[in-house]
Each structure stands twice: as structure tokens, then as C-alpha cells.
Amino acid sequence: MSAPKSLPKDAQVMIQILKDMGITEYEPRVINQMLEFTYRYVTTIIEDAKIYAAHAKKSNVDADDIKLAIQCRMDQSFTSPPPRDFLLEVARQKNQTPLPLIKPYSGPRLPPDRYCLTAPNYRLKSIQKKVSAAAGRISVPRLSVGGVSSRPTTPTLGTPSVQSVSTKVGTPVSLTGQRFTVQIPPSQTAASKTTTPSTPAVPNVLINPSLIGSKNILITTNMVSQSAASDSLKRKHEDDDDYDAL
Amino acid sequence: MAAVQGGLIDTEEEKDIKTEPANDGCGNNNNNNTANDGRLLNASPGSISSGGSNKPATGALEDQQTLLAVLQFLKKNNLSESVEILRREAGLSEDTEDSKGLDSSGAGSGGAAGNVDSESGDANSLLSRVSVSSSAVSASAVQAPSKGAGEDQPDVNVVLSAYSQQGDPALYDVYYSSLKKFIESVLDCHRAELSQVFYPLFVHMYLELVYNNHENEAKAFFEKFSGDQECYYEDDLRVLSGMTKKEHMRGNETLLDFRTSKFVLRISRDSYQLLKRHLQERQNNQIWNIIQEHLYIDIFDGMPRSKSQIDAMSGSLAGEAKREANKAKVFYGLLKEPEIEVPLDDEDEEAENEEGKPKKKKPKKDSMGSKSKKQDPNAPSQNRIPLPELKDSDKLDKIMYMKEATKRIRLGPDTLPSICFYSFLNAYQGLTAVDVTDDSSLIAGGFADSTVRVWSVTPKKLRKVKSAADLSLIDKESDDVLERIMDEKTASESKILYGHSGPVYGISFSPDRNYLLSSSEDGTVRLWSLQTFTCLVGYKGHNYPVWDTQFSPYGYYFVSGGHDRVARLWATDHYQPLRMFSGHLADITCTRFHPNSNYVATGSSDRTIRLWDVLNGNCVRIFTGHKGPIHALAFSPNGKFLASGATDGRVLLWDIGHGLMIGELKGHTDTIYSLKFSRDGEILASGSMDNTVRLWDAMKAFDDLETDDFTAATGHIHLPENSQELLLGTYMSKSTPVVHLHFTRRNLLLAAGAYNP
């Protein structure tokens, strides 16, 4: 069927509404979008009103039901910002507290970890069988093993869990499990000897840098603290895992 | 809703009865005047019962509501004995009131707050009661929707609205026309000032009619008189024309605020006396009542202002600024730059250029340095607000800055900057925000598809930091460790940051180039790391679109402003805001820090600009004069002046210290989206939707100012019509609206926009 010569009545009404509200320039698709919105809104309201009428055991939907439906929808989808006097009151309270002092030399100034998005968003499965000792190099490909029994919450704290993890970054980064700890925490806490058979395993990890790379997202989020850590090294400061101590 | 019907039907008949209890019933509201109680107690049951006896059945419902309303107010004021007596006499039961207790307490507190804010000093007692009731009405109207589902029971606010009615709606027409006739007959010099009254009066009367459900009268009133208003109120009037029922008003916070706040007018004493005398001598001084209630008239002694002077300052949603709003002291000076020795790094430079290099002991030589050792009286003290200390990397940055500053070109009317335009291609009209780092090495764009993209402008590519595994291998003691921590494999010209769930409307780089902030329609502000190109924090606080955000010039703090009409000051290490700047009547569209980081300027859709003090959150300046929402703000580098651009195409210049408008730059034909001062403040560049960049001579515009004949007390500004002289150049782009402007450290102008064929 060829395109209709004149617009349907609804579209004409919508054009008129736009004109009344002073909108003169718009793309033609806007009319379709507005009509869709209108249709969806009206059907939602009417359906709600039917439910309310049924609830009130009325046989017909009347104006009260519609009004109630509109009001409920307004509070749900079309909320408006809080009123001015409320805002003034809240602001007054908030502005009374003095500005907090800034701790010097505290690395990247971020809120406590639970308010940041820097936590790992995955957890590695632990493998059941314990490969006996001696670096288990072959099992390196199964890096998914990861002795990441440490909780994926705080990559920051040097969770002194048994295996690899030692530093703020360590946790998820330590990809291999117990016996064959691989990850040497790069920064100053290298001193912490919680990692067991560290050195010999290191070269192993290098074998599969790509696998490590796959964990990039996580690792890199911790790099902030890393780079700060390395910066702080330059400043010869001691361990600064206090950036979540706020 | 039944209550609404009842109110509508019975208004006519009960009008004369109501005017009586209007005086007495409103006496309830006056919390301060407990002496009224006795009078109230005798009067109200009496009048109500007499009213009741005259009425048919429909009136009984109205009386019931009235009684309940009176009871609630008595309860609110803890007049328990009166409550008992009234209840006994009227034969009401206990339980009918409890259900509305919640509503009325909300109304009461809202009303009390509104009362404190909006009471003017010289209102007489009747009018103070009336104003309390109307503000209680509007406050409760606001509270009621927030309580959830509508109630079928009689609302207190409906009853009260009947009381606050000022007169017969059909007569509003007459009142307005008679005022119009009077003002037209007045002397020329006073006419301009008195004409200021028309607009607020018109809007308030119209809203009153709509609020009291007189739809037809409201429409007729609007049609008759809307054409008379000033042209710059056109948009507001259009919004009003769409509002014909009370329900329409409910969701519109801006209008509700308008109703409760007082419109400020500045009128000379002579004109005011004229008006007052005329209105008070008439029998029907309804207009006087309305004026007392809704307008705040700031009287000054002196010559009446001319029409052009008034036009320059008016246009905002709440009238002009009161004189005392702009009286607080503002420390607009700059903070002292720390003395940094320019050590060994400079040796290579010294060889080529002996003179002009800062020696080790002398502080910087050019104007941005602290020439005098003593404190600038207009500058805040260094520790007025806590600022982060300088790290080594910051010191290196500063040294770079100083080096570049020496190579800076001095601009002026004869040496205009070259403009380099960065066009965003294939953005499909989705480019919504742009920012450039201070050293002009990175450009970030925020897009309507919720992504943020960062580009490197220099040949140096963007790299991510290496993974932990690789980092463990590098030699930490080597000199170029900062290069080694970067992962070459991830080098690319641009990076895309995903995370927002709505268009990104504001972007800001941190001064140390480590972080990027972005604010979006999803209500959050996100902090991204530019070393790992991942998101670090999402700051939630605004629950509505955040239109703009900016880092402080010293880092660590940032400000954001959005649809919820408040601007918030955050620090990167607090998940909640530190300060809330509340006071605007409409959305905040633009937020900027002062160069000394002690003040924040916010521009809003209510056409005002407010300057806030970071230390205590107070609003220290209000600038009115724009006729459209403000989209661009720029502080001059010396901190004394503020430039603002809006949808009306004008750039206005403000003196912060005195709180006055000192210049107006006309020339653009469409919204101005970006303003920037050159590095030394000699040139102001403005970019607009009309695809042009214009350069203005800021030096000259501010020079004329030094004349101190400030009729600052009266705020008479006389703006010279010198836009043409100040315009140094107009540069057209090929159908690319200019979204951002940036002067590099050497005073090359960069502009950015999305190509829009």
C-alpha cells in the first residue's frame, strides 16, 4: 500500500501539541516517538485503573480510578526532585561540618574499598586435586586453578591467607594455587615471605603471559595502587596500605 | 478527590462566610500569637456552626472538613484543651483526625519552614497569616504527592486553599486591568520601574487561579494579559500556558518553588510610594495583598532606573537579587604559588636563554607570580580550605608550566591567537561534553551513547599500566621507571571508557592528569584512572541527571550540579558529598571553580548565577540578568571577574568583588556553550551553537571598570554599548557548533565540536 497522503489523525494531533508547546524544529521521527510514548503511557494507566476498579469491586472504571492510577505512576516513574525547603534543610546540616583535613602522602585518594569499583569481579575456581610440590609447572596452564580462595573483596589488604596472596594486589593476581605460588607481589611487600616456593616458580608464569593478560581487567584496576606504590617507593615511604583506612 | 469537588462547588456560596473565618481560622496558623486562641475558640465554632446551619447537605461536608482542619491546627499548636472543647462542641470523633495526622504534620513543618523563609519584614498581621497559610498550602501540596497514593479523605491543603483565596476569581481580570491603567498613567520616569510588577503579579495571579481550580477564569486571564509581558519571559509563559489544572502544577518543582519564594523587585522609593498610595486608597486592595504576599520589594533611595537598566538586570525566575545577597565579602584573589626552585632541569635552557629565566632564589618573574611578599587582602589564606600538598610529580608539572609560560605569546587586539579546531567526526550528534588537559596533551569526549573516549593529541600514545606480573619484573630503581611501568602492547591513540548508563554530560580532567571525571544522565559521577583506563569510583548522590562536573584547580575536590537543583562538592576520597549548595530554583547547568578553589560558581536554568563559598556552603553572590538558561561560565585568571554565556546569545561580565554586572557582549545569535579566558586574561573567547568562535577584548572591557563611582548601593549599572569595539574577530566553522574552548599554555586556542552537516 502506498504511503498515505495525509498523516493519521493522531500524528496531526501530536504535531499540534508540539506547536502549542513552542517546539518548531524537530525530526520527523520525533512524532513517532511521542506517539509511542503516549500509547504506552495511556495503556499503562488504563490497565492500572482497571486493577484498582476491580479491587474496589466496581464494575466500571471511573474517574477516581484513573486519578489514582495517574498518581501512583507519577510517584513511580516520573518522580521529581525533592522540594526546596527540604533541600535547604539538608544542605544546612551538611554544610555545618567543617571540611575534613587531608592526610598527606596517602597515595591515590579514593574512598574505602567497598565504595570503589576496584574489586575483582570474578573469582577463580579452586582445583581439588593437590598437585604435589615441586613447582608443578605443567599445571601452570590450568591457571584457572588459582588458589584464590581469598575473597574477591579486598585485593588491597595483604590478606595473610595461607597461600600466595600477600599484597594488596596479590589476591586475584596470584593465579596459581597453593603449592606453586607464583605471584611475587611486585611492590615493597616482596619482603613478606608469605609466598612459599616463590622464586623457582616465577619463570613459569612467564611462560603464559597471555593467560595472565586475560585477567587484565582485574589486574589493572589494582595497578592504581601499584603505580602509587611504586611512586611512593620513590618517595621512600613505608607501606601505604592505609588508603582504605578511612 | 471528592474534597476537591466539594471545594469547587461550594466556593461561590460560602465565599462571604469564609472571609470571616478566613481571618479567624488563619489565626490558628500564627504560632507566635497564642493570644489568638481564646478568640479563635469562640469565633470559629460559632462561625462554622452558623455557616453550617445555613447550608444544604453539600455544605455539611465542607464544614466537616473545615472542622477537621481547625482541629488539626489546634493539635499542632498543642492547644489540647481547645481541642477537647471544640471536639465536644462539634461532636467529632477521635479517629477521623488521626489518619490525617501524618499529612498535616508534614504540612505544618513545611509551612513553618516556608514561613521563616518567605516572610517579609513589614507584612501586617493579617497578611502574615495569609502568607503562612498559602506557604503551608503549597508546602503541603508538595508533601502530599511525596506521601504516596492520594487520599480520598478531605485534605487539609484543600481546605486551606479555600482560605487563601484572595477574592472572586472573576475579579482578577478587573484588578489587573485597573493596575495596568494606573501604571500607564504614571510619570515616565516611574513607569519603567512600576512595570516590573506586571510579570510577577500576572504569574502569581494565574497560578492562584489554577491552584484554586478556576480553570476557565485562568485561561481567560492568561489570554487577555499574556501578550503584555516582556518578550524575554516568553518561554516561561509558554510553560504556564500548558498548565491549567492543579495537578499539572504538582510535578513541576520549579513552579512550586516560584510560588513559595518571593519575587524580588528593586524599586526606587518614590515609585514605591506612588504605587502604595494608589493601591491602598482603593476599596478593593486585593492587589496590594498579593503584592505583599508574593513580592519582595527592595527599596532604594535614588533616581528611578531607566528601562534599559532594568532590562539588563531582570530576566531571572525570581526577579533580581536583593542588595544584601551581594554584600558578603568574597576573597577573589589568587592563592600564592609555592616557591619552587627551578634546579638542574633548567641548565639546558639557561644555556640558550640567560635572561628571563627565573634564577634559583627569585620567584617567578611574570605576572602570575607573587610579586609582593605580603598577603593580598583579597586573597583567602592558604589554609582557609584544606588543599592537597604538592607531590613530586606536581612540582615537576609546575616547572614544566613555568617553562611553557615563558614561551607564551602575549595576546592583544593586535596579536590574536591562532585557533586550532578539533572536529569530532561521525559523532552523529552524540557529542555531549569535551575537556582538554591543562597541558593540552589529552582530549576527552563524552557521548550520548554513554561512552567516554580519550584521545592523545600529541604523538605520544596512550598506554595502560602493566599487569602485576610484569610489574614485578621491572627494575624499580631505574630512572625511567615511570616509562617502564607502561605496557607498550596497549598503546593506542584513543581509549574508550565504558561504565555509564546514560549520556555523559560533563567531563573534567584532574590537574595532575591521573584522573578523569564524568557525569551522566544516570545520576552518577564516575572517576576514571588514566593510568589503567578503568573506572575507580562511582559517586552517587544526585538521583537525577548531572549536567556538569569539574575538578578543582588543585585537584582532590570536585563539584557537580544537576537536575535536582543542588550542586555538591565532593572529595575523591569521600563517597558522600562534603558540601551541598542549595538555593537555585531550577536545574544547575554549569559548575565552575574559582582559580583559588575557595568558591564555586553555578549557572542554572532559572537564569541566575550564584557564587558559593566552599568553606561554609553559603551563597555569597547572586547575578541576574541573563534571559535564558546559562550554559557557560569562565573565571578570569586573576580571579576578579566572571564571564557567563546563556541561550540568549549574550556574554555577561561580572565583577565578583562588588557583585555587579560590568559588561555585556552581544554578537552571538545562538546559545553560547563555551567561554574561556586566555592565559593572562587579555582575551575572552566564546564558542556557540551558531558555529562561530568570537574573540573579545577582555582587557579593555575590564579597564573601564576601574572608575569607582559605584552607585553600587543602588546597583545602577550603566553598560556602555561597546560590544562592537570589543569584538576582535569572528571565526566560522563548517557547520560545527563549538562545544569547548581551551587556551594552551602558550596561548594557542583550541576549539572542539562535533561536525554536524
TrEMBL record, chain A:
<dbReference type="GO" id="GO:0003713">
    <property type="term" value="F:transcription coactivator activity"/>
</dbReference>
<comment type="similarity">
    <text>Belongs to the TAF9 family.</text>
</comment>
<dbReference type="GO" id="GO:0005669">
    <property type="term" value="C:transcription factor TFIID complex"/>
</dbReference>
<dbReference type="InterPro" id="IPR003162">
    <property type="entry name" value="TFIID-31"/>
</dbReference>
<protein>
    <submittedName>
        <fullName>TAF9 RNA polymerase II, TATA box binding protein (TBP)-associated factor</fullName>
    </submittedName>
</protein>
<keyword id="KW-0805">Transcription regulation</keyword>
<keyword id="KW-0804">Transcription</keyword>
<dbReference type="GO" id="GO:0046982">
    <property type="term" value="F:protein heterodimerization activity"/>
</dbReference>
<dbReference type="GO" id="GO:0016251">
    <property type="term" value="F:RNA polymerase II general transcription initiation factor activity"/>
</dbReference>
<feature type="region of interest" description="Disordered">
    <location>
        <begin position="226"/>
        <end position="246"/>
    </location>
</feature>
<dbReference type="Pfam" id="PF02291">
    <property type="entry name" value="TFIID-31kDa"/>
</dbReference>
<dbReference type="GO" id="GO:0000124">
    <property type="term" value="C:SAGA complex"/>
</dbReference>
<dbReference type="InterPro" id="IPR051431">
    <property type="entry name" value="TFIID_subunit_9"/>
</dbReference>
<keyword id="KW-0539">Nucleus</keyword>
<feature type="region of interest" description="Disordered">
    <location>
        <begin position="144"/>
        <end position="167"/>
    </location>
</feature>
<dbReference type="GO" id="GO:0051123">
    <property type="term" value="P:RNA polymerase II preinitiation complex assembly"/>
</dbReference>
<feature type="compositionally biased region" description="Polar residues">
    <location>
        <begin position="150"/>
        <end position="167"/>
    </location>
</feature>
<dbReference type="InterPro" id="IPR009072">
    <property type="entry name" value="Histone-fold"/>
</dbReference>
UniProtKB/TrEMBL annotation, chain B:
<dbReference type="InterPro" id="IPR006594">
    <property type="entry name" value="LisH"/>
</dbReference>
<feature type="region of interest" description="Disordered">
    <location>
        <begin position="1"/>
        <end position="60"/>
    </location>
</feature>
<keyword id="KW-0677">Repeat</keyword>
<keyword id="KW-0805">Transcription regulation</keyword>
<feature type="repeat" description="WD">
    <location>
        <begin position="424"/>
        <end position="465"/>
    </location>
</feature>
<feature type="domain" description="TFIID subunit TAF5 NTD2">
    <location>
        <begin position="167"/>
        <end position="295"/>
    </location>
</feature>
<feature type="compositionally biased region" description="Low complexity">
    <location>
        <begin position="22"/>
        <end position="38"/>
    </location>
</feature>
<feature type="compositionally biased region" description="Polar residues">
    <location>
        <begin position="44"/>
        <end position="56"/>
    </location>
</feature>
<feature type="repeat" description="WD">
    <location>
        <begin position="581"/>
        <end position="622"/>
    </location>
</feature>
<feature type="repeat" description="WD">
    <location>
        <begin position="623"/>
        <end position="656"/>
    </location>
</feature>
<dbReference type="GO" id="GO:0016251">
    <property type="term" value="F:RNA polymerase II general transcription initiation factor activity"/>
</dbReference>
<protein>
    <recommendedName>
        <fullName>Transcription initiation factor TFIID subunit 5</fullName>
    </recommendedName>
</protein>
<feature type="region of interest" description="Disordered">
    <location>
        <begin position="342"/>
        <end position="390"/>
    </location>
</feature>
<feature type="repeat" description="WD">
    <location>
        <begin position="497"/>
        <end position="532"/>
    </location>
</feature>
<dbReference type="GO" id="GO:0005669">
    <property type="term" value="C:transcription factor TFIID complex"/>
</dbReference>
<keyword id="KW-0539">Nucleus</keyword>
<dbReference type="InterPro" id="IPR020472">
    <property type="entry name" value="WD40_PAC1"/>
</dbReference>
<feature type="region of interest" description="Disordered">
    <location>
        <begin position="90"/>
        <end position="122"/>
    </location>
</feature>
<keyword id="KW-0804">Transcription</keyword>
<keyword id="KW-0853">WD repeat</keyword>
<dbReference type="InterPro" id="IPR019775">
    <property type="entry name" value="WD40_repeat_CS"/>
</dbReference>
<comment type="similarity">
    <text>Belongs to the WD repeat TAF5 family.</text>
</comment>
